[in-house]
Amino acid sequence: MADRIKLQVTRYRPEEELEATVQEYEVPCPKEWVVLDGLNYVKDHLDGTLSYRWSCRMGICGSCGMTVNGEPKLTCATFLSQYGGGPVRVEPLRNFPVIRDLVVDIGDFMKKLVKVKPWLVRAEEKPQSEGEYRQTPQEMDEYKQYSMCINCMLCYAACRIYGLDPTFIGPAAIALAQRYNLDGRDQGAEERLEILSQHEGIWGCTFVGECTEVCPKHVDPAGAIQRYKLTAALETVKAFVMPRGGT
Amino acid sequence: MTEGVPHTRHHPRWLRPRLSTYWWLQRRSYFAFIVRELSSLAVAWFVFYLLALIRAVSLGAMNYERFLAWSRNPAIVVLNGVGFLLVVYHAITWFKLAPQAMVVHVRGERVPGVLIAASNYALWVVATLAVAWLLLRT
After folding, report:
1. Burial class of residue A34, CB neighbours in 10 A (0-12, 13-18, 19+)
2. A3 to chain B, closest Cα gap in Å
3. Is residue A197 helix, strand or coil?
4. What is the mean pLDDT of residues A7-18?
5. Architecture of the domain delimited by A107-241
6. Whole-number mean pLDDT of chain A?
7. 3-state DSSP of B46-71
8. B37:A206 CB<8 A
9. Which entry of A222, A241, B60, B86 is 20 to 30 Å from A159 by CA?
10. pTM of the model
11. Which chain A residue has its CA at the smallest distance from B28's CA?
C-alpha cells in the first residue's frame, strides 16, 4: 500500500471566485487514517484556509458528511486505504448550497426537522408522583432503528427527489417522525400526519432507495417512508369510512 | 442568480450546483429506479391489451380473429415481449419493497422481512399456476 495518497478537494472561496475549483494535496496514508484525518493533515500542515465541518471523529455527531469519490460518506468512517493508491475526490454534500469549500448550509434541513415535531408530544403529562413512562424491550424495538439517526444528511445528499424538488421534506425528517410515531409514550401522530401526508411529505418520495443505501447508521429511511405511506393511506380510508372517528 | 453579486459577510454568495439532467445515468441504482418507473407504462399497456381482447371477444368470432391477427404482428409481439419483461421487473421491485413497508407481528414477534417477501412470491406462484391451469386445461 502506498504511504501517501492524493486528495482532490473541492474549493469554493466566495470572496474570490464564482465557481468551485479543485485543489490537490498529498497526504500520508497510514492504514488507520480516515478521509477526515487526511483533511485535518491538510488543514494543520499544508493549507490552513481549507474549511470543513467535523467534531466527534467517531460517527456520532454527524457533522463530517461529504461526497467521497461520488458517494455521500461520513469522512470519519471512510478509510483512505480503501481507495487503493487514490486519488480520493472530496466534495461537499450534494443537494445543499455550498457556503465555503466543503461546508454546506443545513438551514433547510433544520427547518424541516422541526416541522415534524421530533420530540415526545403529550396531550397531558402525568404527575411525577406517578413515576416514569415505562416501556417493554419489544415496545422500544418498534422505534429503536429510527432513533439511531444522527442527522448527518447523507440521505438528503443521495436523495434525487430532494435534489430535484427541495420542497420535499426528506428522508431523515420522516424517519425521525416515525421514531416518535412508533413510541408508545407519544401522542403526536395525528399532528405529524398533517405535515407528513402533504405532497411534500411522504407522497413526494418515489422510492429510489438510495437514502437507505448510504445511511451509516442503518436507519432505513426509505423503509420508514414506505411504512408511513401505508399508515397514511389506512388513515385516509378510515376517515372516509368513519368520518366521525367511529363514534 | 448570484453571479456578479459581490460576496459580503452579511450577504454571502453561496454556490448552488445544479443537478445534471442525466443524473439517472450516473449510478446503477438511479438507472434501475428510472427503469422501474418506466415499467409502469408496460403495466398500462397490458391493461389496454386486456381491455382490447375483452372487447374483441364481446364483439364476436370475426373480431376475435382480427384481434389475434393483429397480435401476431411482429411489432406487437416484440412490444408484448419487452412489456412482459418490464412487468416482471416491476413485480420484483414491488415484492422487494413489501418487507420495508409492511411490519407484521405474530404472537408479539416481528415477522422477518424475508418471510414477508417469500409469502408474496409464493402467492405469485400460486396465482400463476391457477391461471395456467385455467388456460391449459382441455
Report:
1. buried
2. 31
3. coil
4. 93
5. Orthogonal Bundle (1.10)
6. 93
7. HHHHHHHHHHHHHCCHHHHHHHHHHH
8. yes
9. B86
10. 0.89
11. A210
Mutation target for B interface from A96, A203, A208, A210: give the one with most B CBs within 10 A. A208
Burial (CB < 10 A; 0-12, 13-18, 19+), residue A75, is buried
Q: Does B104 touch chain A (CB under 8 A)?
A: no
Test A95 with B19 for CB contact under 8 angstroms. Answer: yes
Q: Nearest CA of chain A to the CA of B30: how many Å?
A: 7
Beta bridge partners of A65: A74
- Which residues of chain B neighbour A230 with C-beta distances below 8 Å? 101-102
B94 touches chain A (CB under 8 A): no
Round to whole Å and give the CA distance between A130 and A114.
30
d(CA A178, CA A230): 12
Closest CB from B16, B29, B100 relative to A220 = B100
Asked if residue A4 lies in contact with residue A27, where contact means CB atoms within 8 angstroms, the answer is: yes
Q: Report ipTM for this prediction.
A: 0.80
Number of residues assigned to chain A = 247
Q: CB count, 10 Å around CB of A30?
A: 10
* pLDDT higher at A241 or B84: B84
* Residue-wise pLDDT tens digits, B27-44: 898 999 999 999 999 999
Domain boundaries in chain A? 4-104, 107-241
Q: Indicate which of A11, A16, A18 best probes the interface with B, i.e. most B CBs within 10 Å of its own CB.
A: A18
**Residue of B1, B11, B14, B93 for testing the chain A interface, max A β-carbons within 10 Å:** B14
